[in-house]
Amino acid sequence: MLKTVLLKRAIITFLLIIPSICIGQDSNLGNWIIYFGNKQLNEKWNLHHEVQYRNYNAVGDLEQLLLRTGLGYSFNEGKQNILMGYGYILSENYLGDSDNKSSVNEHRIYQQFISKQSIGSVKLSHRYRFEQRFVEGDFRMRFRYFVNLNVPFKKKDETAYNWYGSMYNEIFLNTESSVFDRNRLYFGLGYKVNKTLRFELGYMNQFFETSGRDQINMITFVNF
């Protein structure tokens, strides 16, 4: 009974943090192809790495290439993890309403803390990330809060939870005067092949103060 109440509260909290400015914004469809890798060095230490290939359309019109890595340390029986890392981001931005693009290079240092908990078979995780961004000679800082729900599905008379539903919300806040940067809301369906490999396909809406974009996300997770 207590677990059910906690789950309901978690879902309500998840929905309440979605800013209302997502209503009535212009949006168009793009595609993100994402790889997340995690190498467990030992019981405590892990090496994170990821590649994200983001397109304005289905494929072939690069919006952003993101490469990120980091070294993490787990404690409290693996329920918490602190990590420090580096990211390189190449952005291809359209100039106004033209077909011309400009390339923007960004180097990023970040620190993060992840906390995980279980409510029955449902997994809930929180990620707090602080970024120091070096964008073409301009220095910026940003805070991100990410909350994720992972709900496994089980067929009758089966014990394995291969299929699962995933949803998350992530808000980005700048340290400058224009505090709100963006928000991402995601719903996806995943399949766990084994303890090492899983795939996920989902829809994400990313919105800013006056505009937004819809994204199809194709994600591969590898733990080894």
Question: How would you summarize what this structure contains?
Answer:
It is built from one helix and eleven strands; from the N terminus they run αβββββββββββ. It has one helix at 2-16, and strands at 29-40, 45-55, 62-75, 80-94, 101-119, 122-135, 138-152, 163-174, 180-192, 197-207, 212-223. Strands 1-2-3-4-5-6-7-8-9-10-11 form an eleven-stranded mixed barrel.
Q: Could you describe the largest sheet, including whether it forms a barrel?
A: 11 strands, mixed, barrel
Q: Give the neighbour order of strands across the main sheet.
A: 1-2-3-4-5-6-7-8-9-10-11
Count of helical regions: 1
CATH architecture call: Beta Barrel
List the secondary-structure elements in sequence, H or E.
HEEEEEEEEEEE
Give the overall form: globular
Name the beta content range: over 45%
Radius of gyration from the CA trace?
18 Å
Structural features, described:
This protein has 224 residues and is mostly beta strands. Helices cover 7% and strands 66% of the residues. Strands 1-2-3-4-5-6-7-8-9-10-11 form an eleven-stranded mixed β-barrel. Residues 15-26 have low confidence and may be disordered.
